[in-house]
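Quick note —
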Amino acid sequence: MSFLAHSSRTRAAVLSARAKPLPRNYTPEYLRRALLGSLGWLRRKQADIFLLHSPNAADLADRAALDCLSALKQDGLARCIGVSCDDQATLANIASDKRVEVIEAALGPNRQDLLVDLKRAAECGAIVIAREVPSCDLQARRPAVEVALPFCLAEPAIGVALIGTTDARHLDGATRAVGST
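Predicted structure written out below.
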């Protein structure tokens, strides 16, 4: 089997999985069941990081979801807990919440509106993960990764910059971008 054939199938599987909406159930019962199911599937006793994916501010208003994550951590099922944010309002609400140890957000030069809250989260001790780094600068004249990755790497509040790719050329561009910083 050639690498390209395998890569094409992998890309199709990832795109198919991404096309399905993530569950939007943040009840304690669902979260516990989901984590235990994932741990069983992975044959692990503890998750390194357990994130709520894409809640909005209203989903977190009653505090039950984050209280549940705190309890799961206290039970030893997760080493760190946090939130993967999709919007400014959610980020603003959780940036100073001491229970939130990890915050993940789409970040690049076109999303500088998030930096104030991400810096506040980092100052409170949260690990900040920038995701979708190249796709956050699609209007750049240079390849997005060559603009967005140095932007994220230069920001002290960002602990991790995630670049996902299924294209070797994009990976080469990311490597060049990292080498130039």
